[in-house]
From TrEMBL:
This is IS110 family transposase.
Length: 30
């Protein structure tokens, strides 16, 4: 379950990186 959630988060992060710059994503800190 944890692995599936982590994989989903990685996919979301990858999509967010395409729309927002890296610096903005890094500000959230995760």
């Amino acid at each position: 379950l944890v692995a599936a959630m982590r994989k989903l988060i990685i996919m979301i992060n990858t999509i967010l990186k395409r729309h927002t710059p890296w610096n903005e994503a890094q500000q959230h800190g995760c």
